[in-house]
Design a protein that fits this description.
The longest helix has 32 residues. β2 and β3 form a beta hairpin. The strands form 3 sheets. The protein has a two-stranded antiparallel ribbon. It has a single domain, classed as NCX, central ion-binding region (A middle domain of Talin 1, Up-down Bundle). The radius of gyration is 18 Å and the shape is globular. It starts with a helix and ends with a helix. About 3% of the residues have low confidence. Helix content is 78%, strand content 4%. It is mainly alpha-helical. It is built from 12 helices and 6 strands. α1 runs antiparallel to α7, α2 packs across α10 and α4 packs across α8.
Length: 316
């Protein structure tokens, strides 16, 4: 009973944390004339990726490679198929030109790089993401941050085209962002820890736990934040949150985990990585076909259907 109470409290923190983060980040973007897609791919993306960071780094240190890798693979699949699928059903998602031309392809590149580094042979180790490869991932994470900084300086703000309830004092906006990040971190830890405990008690394998329950739990901040942003009209924030989270999950989190302790990439994850790559490419194709620059409700339903079959296949 205590486990369930703590899980519910974790959900409460995730809900309030996402609200604080969206409110604060949107207000900061408007006041500083920063495009919301940039805010979504940096402040919000890193903030909502904190649960993945905590879980994967801790798992790497304690030699639970299945959790470290499965958490990221499962979270990225959940972010794309479940979260963006739901968001596009709530409101069709409109992509910016920069997202279509650059960010989607950077996400494809990060996914391929992760797959390649996990299966190659380096430093006498097969199927390991080594420290040197971890440094390489961190370098690309830094380059992605520089790209966002460049775009923030050279783009005009698109916040004015979105619906924001009210503009807050800059100080309180920053406080909201900090409170949101803290709430997401604590809430994510509570949910993951106690959901994992219950799952292990029921005798579910570590891989299945990491790809489903842990991945879903650590993706809750992205889920709640993106849905909240979509309902408020901050479409760019919702899209940027998922794209940024998926990129940082691979480059920053796996990079950090591998730098601390080389991470074993089990070949059994190949099928899951193929699905992740396929979903990432499909997401990049959506704005190029049909309604140009838009992910429609029909396409969102397709994403949800793929996710449902994926989860059923894991359980089966």
């Amino acid at each position: 009973m205590i486990q369930f109470i703590l899980i519910l409290f974790g959900f409460f923190l995730l809900v309030k944390g996402s609200d604080f983060l969206v409110d604060g980040a949107s207000s900061i973007a408007r006041r500083l004339n920063i495009p919301s897609i940039i805010i979504g791919m940096t402040i919000v993306a890193i903030g909502t990726s904190l649960p993945e960071l905590v879980v994967s780094v801790k798992a790497a240190i304690e030699n639970h490679a299945d959790i470290a890798v499965g958490n990221i693979v499962g979270s990225n699949i959940t972010n794309l198929l479940l979260i963006l699928g739901l968001c596009s059903i709530i409101k069709p998602l409109t992509f910016s030109k920069e997202t279509i031309r650059y960010e989607n392809f950077f996400m494809i590149f990060a996914t391929l790089l992760f797959f390649f580094l996990g299966l190659n042979f380096v430093d006498g180790k097969l199927n390991y993401i080594t420290r040197s490869e971890g440094i390489l991932l961190l370098i690309f994470a830094f380059l992605f941050m520089l790209y966002n900084l460049y775009m923030a300086i050279h783009q005009s703000s698109d916040i004015g085209n979105e619906t924001i309830e009210k503009e807050k004092n800059l100080f309180f906006s920053i406080v909201f962002v900090i409170l949101g990040v803290i709430s997401l971190k604590v809430g994510g830890e509570l949910v993951v820890e106690h959901v994992s405990f219950i799952a292990k008690y029921l005798g579910i394998s570590e891989k299945i736990i990491s790809l489903t329950l842990v991945a879903f739990s650590t993706s809750l901040p992205e889920l709640i934040t993106s849905i909240s942003a979509t309902r408020r009209g901050s479409i760019s924030l919702a899209i940027g949150n998922v794209i940024g989270s998926n990129i940082f999950n691979i480059l920053l989190i796996i990079g950090t985990a591998a730098f601390i302790q080389p991470v074993y990439f089990a070949p059994t994850y190949s099928k899951d990585m193929i699905l992740l790559f396929f979903s990432t490419v499909l997401f990049a194709i959506y704005p190029l076909v049909g309604k140009k620059g838009i992910m429609t409700k029909r396409e969102g339903f397709l994403f949800l259907l793929i996710y449902l079959f994926y989860v059923i296949s894991l359980v089966y």
